[in-house]
């Protein structure tokens, strides 16, 4: 957000920053959007989510809608957040409402602002989904309700894993083209003239940012817990991480 626009909403009282968690008690809706990094072992680090939920739990009241937006493993909302909040004695779906709606912003993209990007919403029950859709619907042009929190969690991981795997593939292609003395950029430009069945991805010296280098490993970790080896994801990670060399 440009400084002038940010200053305007702060001055008008529509936006306020604080580290005082007691303010949560006065909220009808609470979004949790905190980092979800990896440990050195490439296992999910859920400590920030746990700290945020602990803060919410201290001030949870009847009728509140809690929405988790942090990219995370399928099952986090139901298996981690819900039991923690219910330690208060309040029941999810009856006393308070709980949903997962992945953050989808593309920073510095002037074409797709937050309001323009459809918001996937999955609640722990129908009422939680409907309430979350109504709330987000006041901000974005379209909400996309899904059947569960798990579907919403998996959808975000699919989006980022799709990018990671395709970037890994085109990075590997770039290495091949380099060895064969073929201009990979010309190859991609030629291929993308096909109006269907192809989406251009571009090679680079490596992957940066919080999402693409990290989120696919959340999915591969969860897959291992279910007895599935995510070979595409692991291989793409190896290719992408080796590109700086």
Q: How are the secondary structure elements laid out?
A:
Layout: H1 3-11, E1 29-32, H2 47-58, E2 65-68, H3 76-86, E3 97-100, E4 119-123, H4 126-137, E5 143-145, H5 149-180, H6 184-191, H7 215-225, H8 231-242
Parallel strand pairs: 1-2, 2-3, 4-5
Antiparallel strand pairs: 3-4
Helix pairs in contact: 2-3, 5-7, 5-8, 7-8
What does this structure look like?
- The protein is an alpha/beta fold and 245 residues long.
- The protein folds into two domains: 19-147, Rossmann fold (3-Layer(aba) Sandwich), CATH 3.40.50; 154-242, N-(1-d-carboxylethyl)-l-norvaline Dehydrogenase, domain 2 (Orthogonal Bundle).
- Helix content is 44%, strand content 8%.
- It has eight helices and five strands.
- The protein has helices at 3-11, 47-58, 76-86, 126-137, 149-180, 184-191, 215-225, 231-242; strands spanning 29-32, 65-68, 97-100, 119-123, 143-145.
- The chain has a five-stranded mixed sheet, sandwiched between helices.
- Helix 4 (126-137) links the parallel strand 4 and strand 5.
Second rung of CATH, namely the architecture of the largest domain: 3-Layer(aba) Sandwich
Strand order of the largest sheet: 1-2-3-4-5
CATH class of the largest domain: Alpha Beta
Gyration radius from CA atoms, angstroms:
21 Å
What does the average pLDDT come to? 93
Element string (H = helix, E = strand) = HEHEHEEHEHHHH
Q: Helix share of residues?
A: 40-55%
CATH topology term of the largest domain: Rossmann fold
Query: N- to C-terminal separation?
Result: 35 Å
Residue fraction in strands: 5-15%
Main β-sheet: number of strands, strand sense, barrel status? 5 strands, mixed
Q: Structural class of the helices, strands and pairings?
A: alpha/beta
What is the overall number of helices?
8
Broad shape: globular
- The CATH homologous superfamily of the largest domain is named NAD(P)-binding Rossmann-like Domain
Q: Provide the number of structural domains.
A: 2
Taking pLDDT < 50 over at least 5 consecutive residues as the criterion, the unreliable ranges are: none
Number of strands: 5
